[in-house]
Amino acid sequence: MDECPRSREGLMKPPWKSLYQKSAPKPGKGKTGHKHLWAVIEKVLTERAPAIWDGQREQAISENEFSTIEAAIKRELPRQFRKAMNILADGFTTGIRSLGWDVPIPDHHHNIRDTPSLYTPDSVETAQEFQRIEDLFLSRLESLWEGSSTTQRIGLLLLSAILYGGLHQKRWLNAWLRSLANPPNIWDDWLWLHLEWRPQDAPKRKRSHRMTSWNLNRTWIADPVTELLMLNWRQHFPDEHEKAKSKFPEALLKAAVEYIGWKKPPGKHLVHSLSEIASSRDIDVLPGFLVEYQSGHLPCTSLPPGSLQRFFTGEVPREELTFLPHTTARQRKHKRVAEETQPSANVEKSIRLIDGLTSFIRHRSQSARAIAGLSKSNQSPWEKITTAKTLKAINSVLRHGCPYLTPAARLLLEWGISLCEKASSPLELRKGSPLAPSSIATYLSLISTGVLENIDTDELRDLTGLEFEILYETVLSYPHTTAQKIRTAERLQQFHGFLTAKFGDISEVDFDEIFACHGLPSKRVKANIITFAEYRVLLKSFGFDRSRRGRWEEIYLVVLILAFRCGLRRSEIHGLQIADIKDLVRAEIRIRPGRFRDPKSVTGNRRIPLYALLPEDELTIVSNWLKKRQREELDHTQPLLQHPETGDSLIPPHRLFDPVVHALRSVTRDTTLSFHSFRHAFATFTLLKLVWPKDLNVKNLPAGLRDESFSLDACTRLAQDLLNNQQQGVRKLHAIAMLLGHAEYGMSFRSYIHLTDWLLAVFKRQDICLPKLTNKALGQLAGLSKQGVFKCKRENPSRSAIFQNQLHNKVQRWGSQWKLKLDSITPTPIMHEKTAEDIFWLPPWAMALGDYLKAAQNNSYLMSPPSGTDATMAKLMYERLKGLKSRRMMFARRVIPVFAELYDVSHGGLVSRNIEHARELRKLFEMVNLSGIRLAAHYRISRSQTVEERDRIIETWSEALGIPKEQVKQKDFGPGKGLVVLKVIQERQSVRGGRVAIASGGWRFVLALVDFQIKKAPYRSNTYCSNSKTS
């Protein structure tokens, strides 16, 4: 079989030919069974799917046929099964993209390497040394604080944190001492400190080294021994905590080991010796990944203080409820810095060509097809753009636009081509997988305009290191927000890596210095989670507990369930097809290249078992929605989530996800949360379920984990469904990476799992990790008499129960004296007072308007509230705006912020040259149906205007506003950019009985508040007052 003639490279058809070349062994590396592997693949495919092996277009394989192929390969290649299935996965993925195949994608098999054993002869010998230190430490507890100095007492706390609390990394010791000086964070019997790393904590030779964001902050949760010791110390020495931050860790530990009578082994630093000794003991009692974590070999991002407080208490900080302003695409566009000189024609042409290319890739501009040299088609505007089309478009721009492209523009396009290829580049900070076309468009659009406007026609390779830094810092001045600056800086760093790989002699650039100058972290991880209690409130607000629900509510429930319970990305949920969910025997979702969206990378192709991850009631909702869509559509390649009002192919992303995010921020009162936070919560909680041991005894479970899915039976069943066995080791970590679609579990830990600190503290509270205290030591530590010690041990037979009982008593007795941070929380709001439609579509400015009107006299520090008729007008307008539904509310969300920007207080109206603004203003007031409101316009007087031109202006604007021509009048309103002032007029009964027209103060108040919400700038309260009185 090894000599099969068709296995030769020249006789193979795409996509198998390129895969054969990539998988071939390198010369001189020995035999790897390469020919035999491909001979088996050829034999199986020619017998069961010959058209697939021949690379024919529009072929399909059913699930049953694929199962027989998989079983045949497993039978023929038991040792190389994983490698063969990965080859099939790559081949099927290419066939779906380029040949139109309809085939299932095999799961990408991770090569689970055998981790080296942590048990070594040195670790065994070091564990014996730990026993000697522990004996000395426990004997000192029998005469606690006797004859000790301040340095020795603080050093004893630090020694306990190293021995029992997992504080093994030297870089956190200074941060731990600084945090010790502040009041502790306590909830029930849990005590934790927030550690913040500072540059001065690093050794002098490493002061210039910038740490990544997952190393800048950490939460240290105390073990029972250290917690009791800290509470006892604060009780007996209440004024000593201020001295902790001025001490040096080495001096403190030296005083502590002298106090207990231990002699340090020669040849090593004291901190390093104690960390090694404590780690040798933890190897025997902790899971391996927790040992790696506390040693710093497995980085993980901790939760910020507010999120950790929500996790423990189930409550949210008492803060002002704020929303991110709703802005239009025009407002979100960067306001470019005015340049003294205009760029040359070549630069302008290059910018237009690259902008047109990115618009084509995103499918937001039909005219961009002509720029890319491609023909127009009748495809759906949401149909995916494949990698092949992206390469064709970039090459077309390079070929047809060559006379107009500057050297920098050509390099940018060549960088875009390299991003389409599957190649690992450490210089570009890239893995081996190619980027999705939408990501390539985003990369180019972020930096192309800034680079081209500032480099002109010069060659990039001729720039010096200083000139590169000036160029990149200038490009970084374009974006306004910190998030945009971070994304732009990361793309610049990758582009410079591409230049270095291409030319080799490019000047080096210190990006750490550039990041530091703009106050940006070198790596960013947005750590946050959503608790189960908050998730249940979200489900309830979308009608989960009602028997009758609207179609929109059903769509949002499906989105919520798939995001929180399965950890799917936005793009993966948005592009789901009906055929991607199988529920015949065991329900599961297949994430694979489809009609609308591709996975983020090759490892994104995966199967997610809904039967194992979803509770029955939530699985029923997803199944019922699937059955409804199957009855509605005969073609199962149609989207799973289709627009219920317009019947479009896909729901726009902002329409599908923004209401969920707004509801999430309303429930948690945390504006830093995003839709991606659901994915973080899924990764964190799934890890806890998989590693949760059967004998784990936690008396006070945090409120964020109080859910049926954390019961012992549910955790056991999940582990069996995902792993098919109960083996310890890295298999569970790879299961998390597989569910998330990551190539390695390090990525999952570094960016998505945020409760490793708490999990480490949970294991530290088990009997096997706790020391056996003598009666005298327990009495000294907990402040008990002999009778109290005997009673405690009689009522609590285990070590963990003894410590938990004493911690609870200690906190209840002495907690109020330390001003614990327990007075800044309020219960999570239950959103019963608003309907689901209000929660979905009420924009932030309307919600803020309602809050202002409810307490009109209490907001004078921002802007004066209206009064009298103006207040009635504002309230009436608010009620009418709140009552808008669906598309009307979307229209109001879009145009009112525009009107707020155009409103001029001195003119009392909207100053504009655009006739569309008049039409939109008329449409808005027709929607709200306010009686007593009419529109008027004043156009600018110009001596150069002829009579015909004035008549044409009057006719055009009167038709747009729907008013008589008499209400379009001439007025000299001074110099400015606007041509016409659009005024909102309110009729009011005068004292004499006649009707007079006044400017509506309520309308002006609405626009002023919207403008304040968008700009977040102080508003002058006297502006409104003066104009209101004048009116």
TrEMBL record:
Keywords carried by this UniProt record: DNA recombination
Pfam families: Phage_integrase
Annotated ranges, domain Tyr recombinase: 525-765
Extent of Basic and acidic residues compositional bias: 1-11
Domain of life: Bacteria
Keyword Ribosomal protein: no
GO biological process assignments: DNA integration; DNA recombination
UniProt xrefs under InterPro entries: DNA_brk_join_enz, Integrase-like_cat_sf, Integrase_catalytic
MF terms (GO), sorted A to Z: DNA binding
Protein name: Tyr recombinase domain-containing protein
Organism lineage: Bacteria, Pseudomonadati, Thermodesulfobacteriota, Desulfuromonadia, Desulfuromonadales
